[in-house]
Amino acid sequence: MNSTATHVFRLMALGGCLACLSGCDPQGQQGAIAPLSHGVDTSQQQTNNLAAGHRLIRAGEYELALSAFNRAALRHGLNGEILMGMGSANLGLERLGQAETLLRRAAEVDPENPAIANNLGVVLMGRGKYAEAAQILKRAYALDNGESDAIRENLRLALEKFDNPATVDPKDNEYKLVLQGAGDYKLSPVP
């Protein structure tokens, strides 16, 4: 059984256990499920889903990360961070068209976020759109005040590809995505 199937199986088993326990009172007796109190902080649940999504991306579990970001979106709507997470997970799954659409929407919602611009630039490079990638990565670099090595390296690579399009070999477009931080990706050539 592969690791994704194992994780899904574990989550299903945990869900079944939680469903059985949800009808019990604290003493373990069957009883009515109490309604949620008005003092419940639902923003904590969104934070948990977002944090889980980012952790799952770092672990390479992109499908599970999408599920976590979808739960956050269902509960609280689509904001820039959720759209970026969904786009980044699709980027990890090499679904570049979907990743581009989601990251463009994220950039519209949160135009000042350098991580969103960086990830969109990475997707555009993966799709061979070097001129637009260079432009967006320049913006990401400016928004970040030049502090991120990953953004600087992505910008350097985009400018190199844009400046020398005749020398772009199809083999040079094969990249391995490496996670940098919570949701930033850096392109690195496949060995």
CATH superfamily: Tetratricopeptide repeat domain
CATH architecture: Alpha Horseshoe
Enter the CATH topology name: Serine Threonine Protein Phosphatase 5, Tetratricopeptide repeat
- CATH class (first level) name: Mainly Alpha
Distance between the terminal alpha carbons, to the nearest Å?
28 Å
Low-confidence stretches: 4-43, 173-181
User: Helix-strand pattern, N to C?
Assistant: HHHHHHHHEE
Structural class: mainly alpha
Q: What percent of residues adopt helix (DSSP H or I)?
A: 55-70%
Oligomer: single chain
Number of strands: 2
Number of helices: 8
Report strand %: 5-15%
What would you call the shape? globular
**Which strand order do you get reading across the main beta sheet?**
1-2
- State the domain count: 1
Tell me what you see in this structure.
Helix content is 63%, strand content 6%. It is mainly alpha-helical and 191 residues long. The chain has a single domain (45-189), classed as Tetratricopeptide repeat domain (Serine Threonine Protein Phosphatase 5, Tetratricopeptide repeat, Alpha Horseshoe), CATH 1.25.40. It has a two-stranded antiparallel sheet with strand order 1-2. Helix 3 (62-76) runs antiparallel to helix 4 (80-92), helix 4 (80-92) packs parallel to helix 6 (114-126) and helix 7 (130-143) packs antiparallel against helix 8. The longest helix has 19 residues, at 3-21. It starts with a helix and ends with a strand. 34% of the residues are buried.
